[in-house]
Design brief:
160 residues, 5 strands, alpha/beta, homooctamer
């Protein structure tokens, strides 16, 4: 079955990126996790980007902070859809740096960017991508969304 | 075969969104185009979002400017992956409004956001999503990327 | 008599939105409170927006954070004046996302936006709207403003 | 019947503010227009703000650019609902100055802020405020919104 | 002798504004302190602005946060030089709102703006203004600046 | 009598800075004009800053764009009040660079900052500073402000 | 002798980057020019970055726009000093994207960032770096700076 | 051998700037440390900038916060390469002020700007500059970068 790779630029990004891993597992999707730094391990990134689509991976989720080049570079190397998670790192300028360096990719090399620290949504988006050709996964997403709805309805009881 | 819907909030967004349509056609992917305004035709948007996945559509591309609610609302209504294109409309505050109102979706409801006016990348991303489970489309993307490479190599001749 | 609806995208917005409820009650105006999420309960939002004006509601206050679509979508569905409260939620980019996605509505569908976390002012504005055709409520506002004045005058005593 | 005042800080704001006047006239609402500068005619502003509610005015629309103090100061002086239109003037810093100096009012003194240069929406909002207690005006708004819908539907024909 | 007025929109601004009072007293300049709210006590502000120059005041320092209208409105009412201190208040959008609503005054009505929370510099600037025509005060400023220099020189000892 | 120095970092700033010169001449105040670049003529700047107060100058107006260091450096060198004009130069990032590098001076060394390209207001502020100890100049300012008022009143005729 | 490489992500960056080439040639420094796209020719970039220091190059200048990854990726691959030039490309968000994605590099991998479109300064900085160990080049820089000074002095004649 | 000067505007910048000193010492490069304030000790800054290149210094690292003029002014005075470190000081507007007032230097006077609080990268960049003409230092940098790589590889073990 399809597998999703969740990679990040530094182990310090793991607390944020764990949300992607958790939701994918909850949706019964295989996950491969790795630390791949664009700036400190460029060869590893190169190898990962070049070969991911030949190693059973269908979607790549890449998280990084600051001048975040990992998602865009992997998107440059791979034909797979790449989802970018801007991480608000410690010396970030309020997160603007990671958002803009992931989002504003030039024509030809898209990165599917989610919200700042939005790793959970990256996981759901990866599932939706798999669900686009897999009815079971799409059904799991429909069920998941019903659950969101129910929680909101519950939370609104006894308000008036 | 999979079909991609390209919708936009106003016909004035068409010059920007045409790039998505063109690249999808160049990649031999079926496209459905429509004007669906979150704020002026909410019922049409509702109907579209609720039923797109039952009408042969695999991926939705939604473009909008200003307080751009169309991509997020369609993402709320559909289990399909939704790609959002922030359009820099005339009274936009430098595009920040459309970028942030598409990107910063709450947990549970992702929108795959591309660059400001990045409709071409939205089209490529949609193709990559289809290519994740369709070898022919993935091969077309690999060929497309080779073409990008060749153009850059050509452009650098005779520089020194 | 006129009633004001105070809705919000998530129960986590209630600590901010409570200020609107409190000031409306202090001004003797009926309040209806509900959790209505644009992204997780779109059908409920649709039903609320379509019918609020036929259920005795005169003004709607809607609070939401991040890519905040609730105020604008309700404004799209209802002929009533809608007041939007940008809530500074946890993963917000300093509040800019909620401010811009509420404020920058396209021509035809206004949202009366107040300051970031400005739920108290949303309540006062709703009262002013009712007071525009109700002398008692307008008098209550005049009295309230006199109170503000008195407090400032008091606070400036003994300064020199 | 209710009358709406449309005031602005400078005659150079008139091309923007005319949209408010036009839509109000189209909705058969009486309009009073004046130039009232917070910084150059403070006494006139004071007189206007103190007495507008005793001169048959129900809603005030105030437009200004740069460090835009007119909407907030009139809101401080009047018990009426005040709608603020941030105008993007020539030396504005991309409109941020007028947006923030109108929107971010302190607790107790709301301004109903609309989008940058959003005078048309200010006019519609004023009509909605009057319509909150006037069925004819509310019906006119419902009809107006139907017209918006029809235009979008028309514009989407012949696209595929 | 010349007197400097230090006014502020709310008593909650006093911890910031105290720096202006302290440095002025240290430079032996008379200070008048008051709470004057543009939005809650407009009449008091009007009276203060119209008459300050006839009551022995030479320079006005005005501090305010959020949509900060006090410095600009006092500048509109008085022929005296007005120094504006943007205060970073609790619901401020990172201070941008107070900075821009004080700084970006229209042609004809300047406010001498200092840094965010820069009340100390406002006090020094007021002293420099008085010192422009008063040799004793100018000499006190020269001495003060020598003191700054000495402290830096001291702090750099023993570094290598 | 008091003299105002108007200096700027480059002759290309003169079209903006001319407004300061013009209004000062209109108010019968002596003006000294010079090009003094912090980055290209640091010695000249040093000499100017150290000696201006001994050469009959009472107030310094300094305009510069981009990383604008001229106003702050002159303020560091001189005991006189220094007014800074942020100039929106060609490669400026929307003027934010010049605004922030002039405004955000550290404690001890104020610059009286005016609006982006606000040279006219710099001239008026310089006149107000002189007027703080010179009744004739203060009267000229009062007359000037009356003129502003009259123009607004004139412009509002025939509007209704 | 030392050689400076001037690379850029796209031939459309050449009009901006030409300033670096010109000033380096004027200072008699050898220049190597190439188009190297991080996203479209990642292998070429990899090869360039890995080997530049073994091919007689001492300093690398890299210009790119939008999500500008070229300077940072080359800095990751090379032990040489890398100067980054943020280019304001057509769909850039006012240049913020290129500035932040070049400037905000993580610890360990610096990029020497210059101003938006500041290719001329990149050239001068490269010369200064070479001049740090080459007296002739340092002397040429001293002479160049004297020339800047002379031009400013000339431009200030006949102003008063 | 070459020496690097690390200067900063205030002793309060030392905790940030210490990272530059530490990495330079770890790379066996001589360091000279001093407090030099552009605004409080302009003569000392002048003397330092004019003579650093004649006192055995090859590269200058200058850190400052707020309206940060030290790096640019030293760059104006010295023919040496100057690296600027924007320090996020206490009253900074999120660091934007120091970033922009260091980065946006005018043509002719570059500052090699690193990330907000990026003193460690400033130290590495200084070493790279020395390494451009010193094989031992370049080798030390290559070794340092290998160390970064190893740490990332280590950190990614046991993840799956």
């Amino acid at each position: 079955m399809s597998k999703v790779a969740v990679i990040m630029g530094s182990k310090s990004d793991l607390p944020v990126m764990q949300d992607a891993i958790d939701i994918l597992k909850a949706l019964n999707i295989d996950v491969y996790v790795d630390i791949v730094s664009a700036h400190r391990t460029p060869e590893k990134m190169f190898d990962f980007g070049m070969h991911a689509h030949t190693r059973g991976i269908s979607v790549i989720i890449a998280g990084a902070g600051g001048a975040a080049h990992l998602p865009g570079m992997v998107a440059s190397l791979s034909p797979l859809p790449v989802i970018g998670v801007p991480v608000k790192s410690s010396n970030s300028i309020d997160g603007w740096d990671s958002v803009l360096s992931i989002l504003q990719m030039p024509g030809g090399v898209p990165v599917a960017t989610v919200a700042l620290n939005g790793a959970k949504n990256a996981g759901i988006l990866a599932a939706q991508i798999i669900g686009a050709s897999n009815q079971n996964v799409q059904d799991a997403i429909i069920t998941y969304k019903e659950g969101l709805k129910t929680k909101v309805i519950e939370s609104s009881k006894d308000l008036n």
